[in-house]
Amino acid sequence: MQSVNTQPDRKLTIMNAITAVLLVIASYMAFVYAPTEQTMGAVQRIFYFHVGAAWAGSLGFLVTVVAGILYLRTGHRRWDIMGHSAVEVGLALLTMTILSGPIWAKFAWNTWWTWDPKLTSAAVMWLAYAAYLMLRQGLEDPNRRARFGAVYGIISFSSVIMTFLGVRLIERTIHPAVVGPSAATAQGSFGMSPRMLQAMLFSFFTFTFVFVTLLMHRMRLERLSDRVNAIKARMMA
């Protein structure tokens, strides 16, 4: 009987090590290297991870779009695996963003949540991709499931565009822009010193590695699942 190799490959081991080191450095830059913000104090430090996770989650959804287009053109299973895995990892990172945001909101706005356009669009984005996973599971035929995932993943990216670009055009928002000027109605905004900006940029870099590493692990698990199912099918034939 054919065995299934469950040992991680060398590339994954290297990525694990690099990502772990980057996370340690990013934590040092966020909590030690970056100065304390004068207005908001230490609570501002959460933004280095809040925004970094948001960036990486959005990157995951962009990967889903690219993988979806490639699947529709080629029909190759590997693109379906990549698109599906990217949604799962991206949704996990977006969940981290949405859960960490209220910690800052409670301090800045004295409430855990408000139906501000920025926050509402982020919630809609989370629901859109959570629905992707649930609706996909409802399709038994693998080809139909893959085509649905590709089309849905492409269409759902409109929620990402609205959250990170569209709402910047809305002036009546209390959510500040971390990079670039905030709306006049923003509350709790802060100016970034050179060290703050360096810490933020390094956070983007670190969470990019976090996303890529998690994506590689998730795709590996999906490929192992395919091999197990193929072995089961041969045994039952």
Pattern of helices and strands: HHHHHH
Shape: globular
Query: What number of structural domains do the residues give?
Result: 1
Helical segment tally? 6
Mean pLDDT: 86
What is the percent of helical residues? over 70%
Structural class of the helix and strand makeup? mainly alpha
Oligomer: single chain
* Rg for CA atoms: 20 Å
Q: What is the tally of beta strands?
A: 0
Low-confidence stretches: none
Distance between the termini: 14 Å
Give a quick account of the main beta sheet: strands, pairing sense, barrel closure: none
**How much of the sequence is in beta strands?**
under 5%
Question: Any key phrases for this structure?
Answer:
237 residues, globular, 6 helices, mainly alpha, single chain, 0% strand
Question: How would you sum up this structure, described in words?
Answer:
With 237 residues, this protein is mostly helical. The protein has one domain (47-230). It has six helices and no strands. The protein has helices at residues 10-33, 47-74, 77-109, 117-137, 142-164, 194-236. It is globular. The mean pLDDT is 86.
Which helices and strands occur, and which strands form pairs?
Blueprint: H1 10-33, H2 47-74, H3 77-109, H4 117-137, H5 142-164, H6 194-236
Helix pairs in contact: 1-6, 2-3, 2-5, 2-6, 3-4, 3-5, 3-6, 4-5
